[in-house]
Structure formats: C-alpha cells, structure tokens
Design goal:
Structural class: alpha/beta
Mean pLDDT: 77
Low-confidence stretches: 69-115, 238-242, 348-352, 365-385
Strand content: 15-25%
Distance between the termini: 66 Å
Helix content: 10-25%
Largest sheet: 5 strands, parallel
Order of helices and strands: HEHEHEEEEEEEEEHHHEEEEH
Length: about 375
C-alpha cells in the first residue's frame, strides 16, 4: 500500500547552474584559505562571474618577510612589524552570503608554494562578463589572465594594480582599452584578438573627434560635491575612520541609514568609496558605468583631478601600451574632467606624435582652467543618464 502523500519524500530538486557555480566558488574559497594558495587557476570552468569572497580571502593572506630576504629583514630590524593581521569584514557575492565570517591568516612568503612573486589569477576560457570592484584592491596581484571570456569593458581602475606585471585580455569583446593602461609598466601584455574599433584614418597615430558628454560649460553642483567627497583627503584631515577620502575623514563609515541619502547618491558613493553606505540604502548593485575616474590630461595629474561623470571623451590609436608593443593599432579611450581637457591630443589631421609626446607637451604648456560653480539643481535631481 503506497504511503500517504504527506508521508512521501519530496522529490529532490536539482540545483540550478547558478547554484552549482556558487557551490564551486565556495569550495575554491575554502581551498585558497586552507592551502594558502596564491595561484588561482579556474580555466575552462564555464564560470560566469567572480565573487567578491575569493578576492577578500586572498587579501586575508597577509605575507610576512622571508628570513633569507636581507632587504625585508632590514626593514623589520628598523622597527617594522614582522607581520600584520588585517581586519576584514564578511564579503558578499552576487546573490549569496559567505558561509564563514571574518578571518585572516598570516603567511610566510617562502611557504606559499615556493613562490615569491605575488598572486596569480587565471580565469581563462570562461563566460565572465564583468569583474568585481574588489579586484582592483588586490595589491599583491602580479598576474591576471582573462583570455577567452566575454568582457566588453576593461575598467580604468586597473591602474590601481600597482604590482601587476602580466595582463592577458585577448579573445574577449573589448572595443578599446582605458587610457589609464598607458600609465602602467607591464612585463607581458596580450591584447589580440579583440573586436577593437577601427581607426578613422590611415595616419600613423589617428585621433578621433572629441565626444562631449556634458554639454553645459558649468558642471552641476551635485557632480562637484561628489568629486570633493570621493577625492583623496590631505593628511590634516586624517582624524576619523579610513583616511582615504574627504568623506571618510569627516564621517565614520558606513554612513548611518538616518542620513536619508537619495538612492542615486548612495549608489554613487558606494561605487566610488566601497563600504561608505549601508546596504539598506542601496537599491541594487552599483551600475557598472559609475566609478571614480582620473582626468586623462597630464597637466591635471599633479592636482589629482577626479570625476564621477566625465565631461568629454576621445579616442586615440596607439602602438605602445603599458610599455609594450601592442602588436598593431589599439584604440585608447581618454576621459576629461572639464571642457577642453583632451585638446592636448593631436587632432585627426595634426600629425603622428605618440601619446607620451602629447603628455609631455601638455605638462609643459597647458594652463589651469577655472570654472564657476553652479548652485542650481537639488540633490534629488542628480542623474547619470
């Protein structure tokens, strides 16, 4: 006699592809931490995303000086601590919460699989369409292989990877690379194949016309205020919280929900200063097109001029990228913080000087532009469309 329906075991539901992928990342996350892995190779796994948790775990592996490294031992004897125990918060990935809480681990560099040259991330031949923002805070990353994925944009934040030596972004869906890549000095760079934009002419170094993104000569007050809040703060303001920005210098972060921050502003602040806004104030994940950028004009580098919304953009086609021969013409996207910022680039018919020559001329001759501030428009009118 068959059992009543209420006593019959419910059929086991098969895991969805997303659930299976999350489970695989969780297992890998545990392996990275328990085995002190600095080489993460997930090639040919059909992964569609990279969770924040794996990046956070790699950051938790805090290296201490090797006993046979005279330079490092000198630093230790001079009063530096032999190791640092970092403070981390539970990381969140898209759609799920980490299965373990805060943790950190100190690791001697000589014990990390015998390697002394940083962290290697190999994500070749997957289905990844975008990269997590936390990736750009992985200071010890030296090798990043993204070949054979579905990336359409290489974020300009890649410049924050100061120790990066090898970058492979071939066989993706990239149409251009950011100008920030020109400021890096890589040992190995692989860019081709990619569906790069074709140059507008046969000149030795073509340059496109300037595309104006904000028509008004006077920037909205909300944009100017956001630029100030997310800008690096001077040392005199390092009194509260994380001394990275004006916002963190004046206010303890995250900002409490009682601040009643409009959704667009909250989304922007969280994208530019991660962790600055409570999750309850965020409507969704920050949009990919919102980030803190640095003006491409070299004369503005010393002033560290940044923006949330670029005022203009322009393309040039370069043969040398990050100190390496690009293997052909590669389109580079430049972004400016105000009108006229990108005039230092040669016009489409102005000859074939290199990007570095343009940079040198801009540093020698460009004058500072002073703009008045518009007080019109309320904070609720802030829009990135």
């Amino acid at each position: 006699m068959p059992l009543p329906l209420y006593l019959q075991p419910s059929p086991r539901r098969e895991k969805t592809a997303v659930e299976q992928e999350i489970e695989e990342w969780d297992k890998l996350d545990e392996e990275v931490f328990s085995q002190q892995m600095r080489v993460v190779d997930v090639s040919d796994r059909q992964f569609t995303f990279v969770p924040d948790s794996i990046i956070q775990t790699l950051k938790c592996l805090v290296c201490i000086p090797a006993p046979d490294d005279p330079l490092e031992m000198t630093r230790v004897k001079a009063g530096h601590r032999a190791f640092v125990r970092s403070q981390t918060a539970p990381a969140h990935t898209t759609g799920f919460l980490r299965t373990f809480g805060e943790r950190t681990r100190s690791v001697n560099v000589t014990h990390m699989h015998g390697m002394r040259d940083g962290i290697h991330l190999i994500f070749s031949n997957n289905l990844i369409t975008k990269l997590p923002r936390k990736l750009w805070d992985l200071d010890r990353l030296t090798v990043l292989t993204l070949r054979g994925n579905r990336l359409e944009v290489l974020p300009p934040e890649i410049r924050r990877l100061h120790n990066l030596e090898d970058l492979n972004i071939a066989n993706n869906q990239l149409q251009y690379v950011p100008s920030e890549l020109l400021l890096m000095n890589l040992r190995v760079l692989n860019l081709h194949p990619n569906p790069f934009l074709a140059p507008p002419s046969l000149d030795d170094r073509p340059v496109s016309e300037t595309d104006i993104l904000i028509q008004d000569r006077v920037l909205p007050l909300t944009e100017l205020l956001c630029r100030v809040l997310v800008s690096p703060a001077p040392s005199t303001l390092f009194s509260k919280g994380n001394p990275d920005s004006f916002l963190s210098s004046y206010y303890p972060l995250p900002l409490p929900p009682t601040c009643l921050i409009p959704p667009r502003i909250a989304e922007t602040l969280d994208a530019c200063v991660p962790g600055s806004v409570c999750s309850s104030d965020l409507m969704s994940e920050p949009r990919d097109d919102i980030s803190m950028g640095t003006c491409g004009n070299p004369s503005h580098h010393a002033e560290n001029r940044i923006f949330v919304r670029p005022v203009e953009q322009r393309f040039s086609w370069e043969k040398v990228i990050a100190g390496q021969n690009a293997g052909g013409m590669v389109p580079v996207m430049w972004r400016g913080c105000e009108h006229g910022c990108l005039d230092f680039l040669k016009s489409e018919t102005g000859g074939g000087s290199s990007a570095m020559e343009d940079i040198e001329m801009a540093e020698d001759g460009e004058e500072m532009v002073v703009q008045p501030i518009s007080l019109g428009g309320g904070i609720d009118d802030f829009d990135f469309e």
